[in-house]
Amino acid sequence: MTNEKLDSLRIDPAQKVRPKSPVLTIFLIIALITGAAIYFAIPRKDDDKRVFSGSGKVQAESLEKNSGKASTSKANNSSNSSSTGNTNNVASNGATGSDNVLLEVSGYIVAHERIELSPRFMGVVKWIGVKKGDVVTNNQVVVLLDDAEYRARLRETEGRLQAAKANLEKARLQYERVKTLATASVESRQAEDDARLNVAGAAASVQELEGTLQWTQTYVDWCVIRSPINGVVLEKLVDPNELVTPQSFGGTRGPSTALISLADLADLQVEIDLNEADVGKVYVGQKCRVIPEAYPDKAYEGYVEEKAPEANRQKGTLQVKVQIADPDTFLTPELTAKVEFLNEKRKA
Q1: What are the phi and psi torsion angles at 149 (to 5°)?
Q2: pTM of the model
Q3: CATH 2.40.30.170 region(s) of the chain?
Q4: CA-CA distance, 251 to 49, in Å (whole number)?
Q5: What distance in Å separates the CA atoms of residue 245 and residue 18, rounded to the nearest whole number?
Q6: How do residues 161-188 score in pLDDT, each as one tens digit?
Q7: Which fold would CATH assign to domain 147-218?
Q8: Are strands 260-263 and 231-236 parallel, antiparallel or unpaired?
Q9: DSSP-derived 3-state class of residue 34
Q10: Which pLDDT tens digit goes with each residue over 280-338?
Q11: Max alpha carbon distance in the chain (Å)?
């Protein structure tokens, strides 16, 4: 009885096998989803042609239109390039070749000659007629020094000279009388010689005072200081009633040694510290193009005016000065400028 009950509780082996179709279906769905994800994750050239739902569809359409335009223009460019060859490359190379820029270096615009007017002697500024930025002409009076002392000395010397001339005339008359009497044996030869020497002494006194008069007049003339060039006042260094001297006393509170600073702005150069590795590319007379940093749209012709005979060992550079052929008011001293050295056949 017990065995029968046990047999009734046993499961048929055929019923123990699970159906395989649902499991296969699940694995198949997972594989499809994974494959789709990998497919959309890989970038392709025609990604912009994919159509998604919602706003993505609109974006896809716009991308397709843009890509159509781009492909059209690309096709046109390719057709043009195929018909004319490498036109763009040739044009760009041709522009560079026409420029022939061998070297490009930056430097500072400087005046060819900067002049500082200084007094010839210690004096007091009586009047100064210019200020910074004023245009001056050659021989224009720019500063007057106090000349009262030298004019007084001038009048004194003139008076002494007149007296010396009168003494000379008196000595000459005396000599003529003594000479006549000596001829008649009334006066001795010694008296005649003394009279003749008095004339020579009076003449020497006159000559001395004439020199003193000229010296004093020179000082009076030096009190009037004129501009030696046509140019512009770069800096005014003194004011009226200020003491000036031609040499410094060595202290910071000593008198000024210069009155004004002048430069001819129609004669400008660019001063460059050229690296020693580029020295061989630059020679005197070489044509250049000067472009001020403040006005990059302007270019000026120039040429190498000077190469320093000695290099700077500490900096490893050689100073080169480029003369600007035709400067204008846009060029200002001490501003930065770029210099392009042109590659031309060097003259022998």
Answers
A1: -65, -45
A2: 0.60
A3: 100-113+264-342
A4: 85
A5: 121
A6: 999 999 999 999 999 988 888 787 777 8
A7: Helix Hairpins (1.10.287)
A8: antiparallel
A9: helix
A10: 999 999 999 999 999 999 999 999 999 999 999 999 999 999 999 999 989 999 999 99
A11: 208
